[in-house]
From TrEMBL:
Cellular component annotations (GO), alphabetically ordered: nucleus
SMART domains xref list: MADS
SUPFAM superfamilies found in the cross-reference section: SRF-like
Gene3D superfamilies the UniProt entry points to: Transcription factor, MADS-box (3.40.1810.10)
Entry protein name: Agamous-like MADS-box protein AGL80
Subcellular location field: Nucleus
Molecular function (Gene Ontology), one example: DNA binding
């Protein structure tokens, strides 16, 4: 049976808050230990108690935590914050991603417009300007695809070749 979602809010009762802190701290240290053992990665945790800010609890030990922090400090600055972004970098990467999405959507819209223009042309309406060139190239591409499909089908089904059909587009 699923538990109810815990409402995250400040616990006003001192006794309840201390008990909750101890329980959550124990669970946090257990998770850090599991992460270290299961994934084989060096890890440490530093937890300060609200009543004793000068006496933090260090897991697994002070020596192991010092060694891990020393290894982090020995990394070149690029390795230390490899995945860290400042606000400007984050926004520029997000902007690049959005511009790529915009280009993709614009391309899809243009292709849809050309298809609509081709359908109008097939329906007997006229097409003008740059649309005419794009409709022509789209129609030629479709004709090539149809010819390739016919060729593939005749080869795969061992049928006698069909008589040549002129698939020239006449505008």
């Amino acid at each position: 049976m699923a538990r109810n979602k815990t409402k995250i809010a400040y616990i006003t009762s001192d006794v309840t808050r201390r008990r909750t802190f101890q329980r959550r701290k124990r669970n946090l240290l257990k998770k850090v230990d599991e992460l270290s053992v299961l994934c084989g990665i060096p890890s440490c945790a530093l937890v300060t108690t609200p009543g004793e800010p000068n006496q933090p609890e260090i897991w697994p030990s002070i020596v192991d935590a010092d060694n891990l922090i020393a290894r982090l400090r020995d990394l070149p600055s690029l390795g230390q914050d490899k995945r860290t972004l400042d606000h400007e970098s984050f926004l520029s990467k997000d902007n690049e991603r959005l511009e790529e999405q915009l280009k993709k959507v614009e391309k899809e819209n243009r292709e849809a417009e050309v298809k609509v223009a081709m359908m109008r042309c097939l329906g007997g309406e006229g097409v003008q300007g740059a649309d005419l060139d794009e409709v022509g190239s789209l129609a030629e591409g479709k004709a090539r695809a149809v010819a390739e499909r016919i060729e593939w089908l005749t080869k795969s089904l061992y049928l006698a070749p069909l008589p040549a059909v002129d698939l020239q587009l006449r505008l």
